[in-house]
Amino acid sequence: MLKRRIIPCLDIKDGRTVKGVNFINLRDAGDPVENAREYVRQGADELVFLDITATIENRKALAGLVERIAAEINIPFTVGGGINTIEDVRVLISAGADKITINSSGVRNPDLITEIAGQFGSQCVVVAIDTRFADDEWTVFVDGGRTPTGLKTMDWARKVEDLGAGEIMLTSMNSDGTKAGFSTDITALVSSSINIPVIASGGAGSMEHFRDVFFNTACSAALAASIFHFGEIDIRDLKKYLSENNISVRIT
């Protein structure tokens, strides 16, 4: 059985780690290099870095900061924010990213997903899907959750797989930052309907939430931010708890 992964996420604004609720009301969560170093020490399986304002500020991700973090860690490192071209990907891979994640640019230019997969391999391409439930439908948002696209989440998930994505990072905007639990309904639907790994994101507030999303969906990984940033859950304790609940995780 494949081991389920635990992934901390560094949401970056102005060079600092931040975290909000429902994509707004951001507060400082520390120095990202120190955060990254601590998560490796705790046994995180991977690390995600999202420059959350790069797209709306029309700039590139912070390659210098990516390089500083990459120098401190020895786990797979995914970077996103402001990626619009193959050259943007090349810069971040050169800075130390193992994978890149795109969201808004993938919606606006789906061919970019195929181009990146063609040059760097599907395993390099993580498509982030920010989804919100309203009017009895899960739909996709871009620009850091600011802009509705009208795309149905399930349709877009299937399409990005066909385009060559190697993984999907699925964030429920309804749950994000609430600590009320992952949105297992949409996570279960997406993860059982496609053949690439799905990372569940948005809503983690307790160890039980991780247990529930792994029990009730086919997701390959669960991602969280604030509960790790503010020391509410230690990844070592979380993995011990999951293992005791018959969920296969990597114990270091």
Task: Name a few traits of the molecule.
252 residues; alpha/beta; TIM Barrel; eight-stranded parallel barrel; 35% helix; globular
Please, could you describe this protein's structure?
This protein has 252 residues and is α/β, with parallel strands linked by helices. It has a single domain (5-244), classed as TIM Barrel, CATH 3.20.20. It has helices at 32-42, 63-70, 86-95, 104-108, 111-120, 153-163, 184-193, 207-216, 226-229, 235-244; strands at residues 5-13, 16-21, 24-28, 47-51, 77-80, 99-102, 125-134, 137-142, 147-152, 167-172, 198-201, 221-224. Strands 1-4-5-6-7-10-11-12 form an 8-stranded parallel β-barrel, surrounded by 6 helices. α2 runs parallel beside α3 (86-95) and α6 runs parallel beside α7. The chain is globular.
CATH superfamily membership: Aldolase class I
Helix-strand string: EEEHEHEHEHHEEEHEHEHEHH
| Average residue-wise pLDDT | 91
Major sheet: size, sense and barrel closure?
Answer: 8 strands, parallel, barrel
Distance between the termini: 18 Å
What CATH architecture do you see?
Answer: Alpha-Beta Barrel
